[in-house]
Design goal:
Elements (H helix, E strand, L loop, with lengths): L11 E4 L8 H9 L7 E8 H5 L3 H6 L9 E6 L3 H14 L3 E6 L4 H4 L11 H14 L4 E6 L7 H14 L3 E5 L14 H10 L2 E5 L5 H8 L4 E4 L8 H10 L10 H16 L4 H15 L6 H9 L4 H17 L1
Parallel strand pairs: 1-2, 1-8, 2-3, 3-4, 4-5, 5-6, 6-7, 7-8
């Protein structure tokens, strides 16, 4: 059965797209946790121009495992025809939906008129959604921010209306402008306003760090999307998903309890990949996992020097041995 945002059970808990973090290995690790069947993972952003030009690295980034379903792949770019081309490729791969990045604040992306720069070109943004959503049968969604330089209610509502009228079935809204990047506090009021005015399915995003934050922020929305707080703590996603079902998830507290999932994450990362490259890319995850016990800093330093799965496993074995003796 085709995935549909309308029919999907609410409230939705979603893992935010994060370049360099939410790759297939991390998404699979999240989906291993109990009660995460209904969690929706968003992929890192992939360039439609790079896909068009046959970039091997971009095709590698599109790799996914059925355990990640329902997976939403995120694309960025500015050429409607490239979105159509990439969308068809993704549809053939069996993913659940396609998300269009209209929120990325980095200069590398915006200087090319992509990502959050599309907030300045509402007509092009709507054209991209219109063309893509008519070319594929999976739902198309948009992730964006409150504005480019500043928040202007009329402009923001106009932008959201434009992409929804063009065919977007869901909006993920981060309560900051492009200028704010990640500074200050996310403003959720405009997000509730879009829900009230447009009625479309909405995920609210920005600064959720706990179950209490998620429950407090949900309000009239259809779900929440969590990003940075999951770095080194994928268990937070399972905890929030359980809380939304009215259940309690007993999260692992000690490093010893966390290690089995961390080990699995590393194994997923090297599966079918260049091992040295995969381990190096994983270092940031490892640094955020290894914490909260005496000597953690020393083990982080050790793992930062690892280049192979076997070397990482040796560090994990050492951690396990030391913690078991305590
Ligand atoms: C390292 C990093 C990478 C990100 N990459 C993406 C991305 O590829 N696509 C996207 O739409 N947003 C991206 N974001 C933004 C997040 O999806 C999210 O909107 C933002 O972090 C706010 O949510 P949070 O407070 O829960 O982290 C990224 C954020 C971070 C910190």
């Amino acid at each position: 059965m085709k995935f549909s945002w309308d029919a999907f059970p609410k409230p939705i808990v979603a893992l935010a797209p994060m370049a360099g973090y939410t790759d297939s290995a991390y998404r699979r690790a999240v989906k291993l946790l109990p009660g995460t069947e209904g969690v929706v993972c968003f992929s890192e952003l992939t360039s439609v121009a790079a896909i068009h030009h046959g970039s091997k690295e971009s095709y590698r980034m599109l790799g996914w495992h059925p355990d990640e379903f329902p997976l939403i792949m995120q694309l960025f770019g500015k050429e409607p025809e490239f979105f159509v081309e990439s969308g068809k490729i993704l549809e053939d791969m069996g993913i659940a939906g396609i998300d269009i990045n209209m929120g990325c604040p980095t200069c590398k992306v915006t200087s090319n008129e992509c990502g959050s720069a599309l907030l300045k070109s509402p007509q092009l943004a709507a054209e991209i959604v219109y063309n893509l959503s008519r070319a594929v049968s999976v739902p198309v969604s948009v992730k964006t921010r409150l504005g480019y330089e500043c928040y202007d209610e009329k402009r923001f509502l106009g932008f959201c209306t434009g992409v929804v009228d063009a065919g977007a079935k869901l909006l993920s809204l981060h309560g900051r402008t492009r200028t704010q990047a990640f500074s200050g506090e996310a403003n959720w009021d405009p997000i509730y306003l879009v829900k009230k005015e447009l009625g479309v399915t909405i995920l609210g995003n920005g600064d959720i760090k706990s179950v209490a934050d998620a429950q407090m922020r949900l309000g009239t929305l259809d779900g929440v999307m969590i990003g940075r707080a999951t770095m080194g703590d994928p268990w937070l996603i399972a905890e929030i998903a359980a809380a939304f079902r009215g259940e309690k998830y007993v999260r692992p507290v000690s490093m010893l309890e966390k290690l089995p999932l961390v080990r699995q994450h590393v194994r997923f990362a090297v599966e079918g990949s260049n091992e040295v490259k995969a381990i190096r890319e994983l270092r940031k995850h490892l640094a955020s996992y290894i914490k909260g016990f005496e000597g953690a800093k020393m083990y982080v330093e050790k793992v930062m020097k690892c280049d192979t799965l076997a070397a990482v496993e040796v560090v994990f074995d050492e951690i396990e041995e030391v913690l078991k003796l305590k």
